[in-house]
Design brief:
The chain is α+β, with helices and mostly antiparallel strands. The protein is 17% helix and 34% strand. It is built from 1 helix and 10 strands, in the order αββββββββββ.
């Protein structure tokens, strides 16, 4: 029984960790970082000489958002802002009317 509980805990933990939403964009070469609405993001290395935006969005509070990002090319400067991206994080509602039947 103990091994079953440990196995379920590992599976559920992995599922939750992989489910976090991330803001991402197409791969780009020569980018050293990204900035989205003033928040700096370290790029995700794709292993082929390109990097991608990979901004964790899990800690946002519920509500509507509109974000624009720029690519940082180091000594070459920053790109112009991206087209704004709008989305909403839903309100997380607890289950109601708990009871035994």
């Amino acid at each position: 029984m103990g091994k079953l509980i440990i196995a379920l805990a590992i599976i559920l933990t992995a599922t939750v960790a992989m489910a976090d939403p991330h803001l991402t964009a197409d791969p780009q070469a020569d980018v050293v970082g990204y900035e989205c609405d003033g928040v700096t993001s370290i790029p995700k290395d794709n292993g082929d000489g390109t990097v991608s935006l990979w901004q964790d969005m899990a800690l946002l509070i519920p509500g509507p958002y509109t974000m624009a990002c720029v690519a940082d090319y180091g000594v070459w400067g920053k790109s112009s802002p991206s087209v704004p991206f709008s989305f909403a994080k839903p309100e997380l509602v607890s289950p109601g009317s708990l009871r035994l039947e």
